[in-house]
Every structure is written in structure tokens, then in C-alpha cells.
Amino acid sequence: MSRTPALRIDRAAVRWSAPEDERADRPLLVLLHGYGSNEHDLIGLAPHLPQEPVLASLRAPIAEAGGHAWFSHANFDDDGPTSEYADAAARAVLAWLDEQTDAPSVGLLGFSQGGAMVLQLMRSDPARFAYGVQLSGYVVASGSPDEELARIRPPVFWGRGTADTVIEPSSVARTAVWLPEHTNADIRVYDGLAHAISPEELVDVAAFIRSRM
Asked: Is 157 helix (H, G, I), strand (E, B) or coil?
């Protein structure tokens, strides 16, 4: 029997950038916040991103650290979160996506733990997503070969700062190897940036997303 919990996305907590009657036939961009945050966080990026996609900012399903988490720090080992717990969170997001009206395309944008979720979702369903943006994030350690993802090689933007002391160096090193092997990676490193998103980075992210429209 699996030790992982059955997680779900709270549909009532989703923050949308447009009312329901204005979402038809528009690309969807799913926003995934970082550890201990909530659905109100990344929706604030909306004015800085292309206006064509509808943004949907989700609340992670685990209450923790004064906010919400995609996977609990209680389930971390020396390499960070174990893949079974990251997979449980990915299944919750995919189930929520299954309930949505079909969009012409779906993109992902996540920060920190939400950035790890971007890559975990792309591993879970490689053909489903048009692109991914992971900011100050990492790839979860796993024994999976991710062969289908490596075959498709979806475009992924990875932005991180040289002054980020939150993400473990081992996780950064693992991601730096894994990402070019499995995706069409656009890797940007911002000098002096801590565990945050800078205006310069947002300009690059907007250009990346716009090129995928």
C-alpha cells in the first residue's frame, strides 16, 4: 500500500486572471507558488507577463509553514523531496487540469518548490505542456530515466540567482545536468540575485513565454 497521501487542488482557492466568460480558446498558464506561500503570490506577476494566456494560480494541497506546500519537508531526505511525494502532488495538479475546459495549450510557471513541480509535472505527462518556466527551483531526484520527456524535449526556462542560499548546491548541480539532457533548456543565471524574482528575469520570462504563443 502506498504511503503517499491522496492530494487534491482546492478549486475554490484558484486565483484566475480573467473571469470564466473570458477564458475560452485562450492558452492557459498554471502558476505554482513556493513553499509556505499561497495562491495569492504569483498572480501578482500578471502585469509583467504576456496577456494572451489566462493565468490560474493554484494553492498547494498541504498546509505547512504558515502557508501551503506541494510536498512536506517532513518527507525530505539528503537529496531533498522523495519522488513519490512529488508524484502525489503532480497527480493532484493533473487531476485538476482534467476538469478544466480544453485550452489550446497549457504552460507552467513555478517558483522554488513550485519550480520543482513544473519539472515533475512535465515528467509525469511529457506531451501535455507547451513549455515550463521554473524560477529558483530544481529537479527532484529520481531513478526514473524520463525517456519520453527526453524524446519530446519541451522548452523549459530555468532562472536562478548566484546569491540564492535557499536551494541546496547539490540540487542546483543535479538540475544543471538533468535539464539539458531532457528538455530544450534556456538557462539564465542572474548575478547577485537571491531567492527571488528580479525585474530583469521577468523581462526574460515574458519573452520566453511570448515566443511560445
From this structure: strand
Identify the H or E element spanning 84. Answer: helix 83-98
The per-residue pLDDT for range 33-70, each reduced to its tens digit, is: 999 999 999 999 999 999 999 999 999 999 999 999 99
Residue 18 lies in a domain: no
The reply to whether 6 falls in a domain is no
Give the count of domains, the chain: 1
The H or E element spanning position 15 is strand 15-16
pLDDT at residue 144, rounded to an integer: 84
- 108 Cβ contact partners less than 8 Å away, ≥ 6 residues apart: 29, 30, 32, 117, 118, 121, 122, 129, 131, 132, 133
Q: What are phi and psi of 130, to 5 degrees?
A: -75, -30
* Domain containing residue 176: 28-210
